[in-house]
Write a structure and sequence with these properties.
eight-stranded parallel β-barrel; 8 helices
């Protein structure tokens, strides 16, 4: 775990928001690491097939239940295609996540940013809460108009490479909201500057962040190299309940 400068209070509250686009069966150590580090994590996104898949995957249940038992909020991944998918299509995916995996919330990916689609996302958020989702995350990947913040618990206001993140501008309205409402997802971050990336996320008023050295078409298909190395050192059975052995 990185030791940040003690004078930077914003880093003390910075938590991880993890897009777990990797299967618990093929990446068991990485899911163990998530449970072991529950106290550091704001939420984990369950994404099995760009959504819940066509049917219940029984093999996922032990890992998902382990995270929830450890106190980690699990969000089901649902693609909104920038408002092009209908409310019924989106809600069908969410209900599958809720029924099959008993997720705590929803991660609405590829969310629109402009005012034209605001009412669509307001309806999605309301319908999701009515269905039982306790946490609503809109992943815009960029800063939306401020009104979206009235309808979601979390806004993803950056998703991209480290080189793009260095140049990111932050609208003035962001600082009028709690930092805990924002998360940033960064990939292709050199290991040597990982601590700098986390520091910069905190400085940009993000209460949650995820930083990985992975890149390519899907940089979220596994944990960063450092976390994978740490996972191999976990005691046998350490993450059965998401807590260390007594």
């Amino acid at each position: 775990m990185t030791n940040y400068p003690p004078e930077d209070a914003a880093l003390d509250g910075l938590r991880l928001f993890v897009p777990a686009y990797f299967h618990p069966v093929t990446h068991p150590l990485e899911w163990q690491w998530l449970a072991w580090n529950a106290a550091r994590i704001r939420a984990v996104v369950l994404n099995l097939a760009n959504g819940p898949g066509r049917e219940l995957d029984q093999a996922c249940l032990p890992a998902v239940n382990r995270l929830r038992a450890a106190g980690v909020t699990v969000c089901g991944y649902v693609d909104t295609n920038y408002g092009q998918r209908t409310v019924d299509e989106v809600m069908s995916d969410l209900r599958s996540h809720l029924d099959w995996y008993h997720v705590d919330g929803v991660f609405f990916d590829r969310s629109a940013t402009g005012p034209q689609q605001l009412s669509h996302y307001a309806e999605l958020a309301g319908r999701a809460r009515d269905a039982g989702a306790r946490l609503i995350a809109l992943n815009h990947g960029a800063h939306p108009v401020e009104a979206y913040a009235d309808h979601a618990d979390l806004l993803g206001t950056f998703e991209g490479s480290w080189s793009s993140y260095v140049e990111l501008g932050v609208p003035r309205w962001v600082r009028s909201r709690p930092a805990e409402q924002f998360f940033h997802l960064m990939h292709s971050v050199p290991t040597a500057v990982r601590a700098d990336a986390m520091w910069l996320a905190a400085r940009r008023h993000a209460g949650c962040a995820y930083v990985t050295d992975r890149g390519g078409d899907n940089p979220w298909d596994g944990l960063p190299a450092g976390e994978i190395a740490a996972a191999t050192q976990l005691p046998r059975g350490a993450a059965i309940l998401g807590t260390p052995d007594a």
